[in-house]
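Is MRU placement plausible here? Inputs below.
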Amino acid sequence: MSQCAFSANTYAGIRPIKYQNNVLSLLDQRKLPGEEIWIDYTDYQEVAEAIRSMVVRGAPAIGITAAYGAYLGATAIEAKDAEDFAQQFDAICATLNATRPTAVNLAWALERMQRLVRANLNQPPINLKIGLEYEALAIFEEDLRINIAMGQNGEKLIPDQSRILTHCNAGALATGGYGTALGVVRAAVNAGKQVMVLADETRPFLQGARLTAWELQRDKIPVTLICDNMAGYLMSLGGIDCVIVGADRVAANGDVANKIGTYSVAVLAKEHNIPFYVAAPLSTIDMNLAEGKDIPIEQRDTREISHIGETQLAPEGISILNPAFDVTPARLVSAIITERGVVQDDYVVGLKKLTGKGS
Ligand code: MRU
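Reply from A.M.:
I modeled the complex. C-alpha cells:
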C-alpha cells in the first residue's frame, strides 16, 4: 500500500500558479518572502515577460506558465482555417520559447501544445482553442501528480535523521505544487522520517534564502539557511548526510544543468563521500542532447550581481559575469530520481529505458 499521506486530489499545499476563465494568476516570486502578491495575466506577451523577469521561475513552473500563455495567445487568434491558426500559434509559441533557454520544460510544454494543433488540423479554430485550454490544464495537473510520485520514489533513498543540503529552489514554488527535490523531502517527512534541510542561499537571485526557506518554514519542515560558501565547511564537519537538487535539463548521458553553484556542491559532495541526488521529471530529460556541454546556459543581467534591490554593491563600471546555470557531470551524480523510477550508475542505458527515447 502507498505510504503517501495524500494524493494530487488532496494536496492543499503551496501552488504558485492559478488559472480560471482565461485568467492566469502567478504568485510574484520576486516579492517573496516579504509580500505575497498575485498578478493576473490575459495577454501572452505579458506572460512571456513574467517568465523572463522571473515572476515565475523553476523549470516545471515555467513550462506550465508557457502552456497557459500559449493558450491565452490562441484565444486572440482570428484565423480563416486551421492551417492559418497553426501558423499564428507557432509564432506565439516562438515568443514564449525565447524567454529562458536552459530549462527544457519550457520547450517541452510548448511542443506539446503545438503537437495538439498539428494533430487536429481537420478541426475548426474554435475547437483547437478548446483543446489547447484542456492541454494546458493537463500539463499543470500532471505536474503535481508527477512530483508526488517522484517524492515517493526518492524518499526511499533518504535515511531517517538525515541532514539534507539543497541548492536553489526546487520546491512547490518551482513547480505546479509539492516540488521535485523538496517533494522528496516532503515525502520523507510524510513517511515519518525526521529530516532537516540546509538551504544554500543561492546567489545572486537568492532562491534558497527567499523561496526555499519560506516554503519549508511555512510547512513546518526544519530548515537552516547557509551562505553558498559554507557547504564545504559543514561537509568537512560531518554535518551533511546527502544533497538533493532539482534540474533544468538533463542530457541523455546524465549530465545535469541546474542553478549556478550546483556543480561546486557536487564536487564537494564527491570529496566528502556524500550522496548527490537529482530529482527531475521526465519532461526535464532532453534525450536529443547527448551530453551536458550542449545545454544552452542563460546569461542574465549583471545588475543581479552588482546590486541587491536598489543598493549598488560593486563599483560602477566593473566587469561582471552572470551565468545562471552550470552543468554537473553525470559521474558526480549518485542517482537521478524521476516519477517512473530511480536511475543509478549507467545513465545512458537507464535514461533511455525510462524515457523510451534515444538511439
Ligand atoms: O533561475 P531559476 O530560479 O528558474 O532556476 C531554478 C532552478 O535551477 C531549479 O533548481 C530547477 O529549475 C529545478 S525546479 C524543480
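Short version: The mean pLDDT is 96.
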